[in-house]
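Practice problem 4.
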């Protein structure tokens, strides 16, 4: 998989992609992540990529020209399955979206910034708009890092145990059950007996019950969706 990220602040993305799972995926040749400075496509002598809104409202707006030039240049080199725009009013990013995107070959992520982007970009160049939550960030760089991390970790071979990602929260519509490790007794705080029983079926039944109860308590909205399905 190849992910190309267009941003006005490429420095913000240097760290996330150079450590941990994302770094490992790139070292293994399972993913390529390229961060591009959108200002490289600006025709302004000051490399500006924003201008005032015609509506005269507060805040600056990302201009269409450098964005179109950047996307067209990338598209001239390869085909892209998705061109994603990170925006507070996009579709909320969920695990199923990460699952779908992990099957793609090439993706562009345009990081939102300032007051937003010229609507003509969204109307004519973008194939999917994504929000990471009902809040506003300074820019879409952190959202792009979140999307990239959630997607890349699902690519076969990235995690040492591929089944790990398939048992994460949200994969089956429920939150994950609690987990424990050694020692079995720490200061009187004990691991549930069932996990020490060696009975695989009892353990699986316990995990499912715990997942259901945790979801009911913490995220009842997920439980309703799970029951409907």
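Answer key:
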């Amino acid at each position: 998989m190849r992910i190309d990220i267009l941003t006005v602040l490429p420095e913000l993305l240097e760290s996330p992609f150079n450590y941990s799972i994302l770094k490992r995926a790139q070292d293994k040749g399972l993913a390529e992540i390229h961060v591009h400075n959108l200002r490289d496509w600006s025709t302004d002598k000051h490399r500006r990529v924003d201008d005032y809104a015609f509506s005269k409202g507060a805040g600056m707006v990302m201009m269409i020209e450098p964005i179109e030039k950047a996307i067209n240049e990338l598209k001239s080199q390869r085909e892209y399955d998705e061109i994603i725009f990170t925006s507070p009013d996009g579709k909320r990013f969920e695990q199923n979206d990460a699952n779908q995107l992990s099957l793609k070959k090439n993706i562009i992520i345009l990081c939102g910034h300032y007051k937003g982007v010229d609507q003509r970009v969204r109307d004519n160049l973008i194939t999917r708009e994504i929000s990471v939550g009902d809040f506003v960030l300074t820019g879409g760089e952190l959202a792009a890092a979140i999307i990239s991390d959630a997607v890349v970790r699902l690519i076969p071979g990235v995690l040492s145990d591929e089944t790990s990602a398939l048992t994460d929260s949200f994969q089956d519509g429920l939150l994950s059950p609690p987990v424990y490790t050694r020692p079995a007794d720490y200061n009187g705080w004990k691991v549930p007996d069932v996990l020490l029983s060696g009975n695989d079926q009892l353990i699986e039944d316990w995990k499912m019950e715990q997942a259901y109860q945790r979801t009911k308590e913490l995220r009842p909205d997920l439980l309703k969706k799970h029951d409907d399905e």
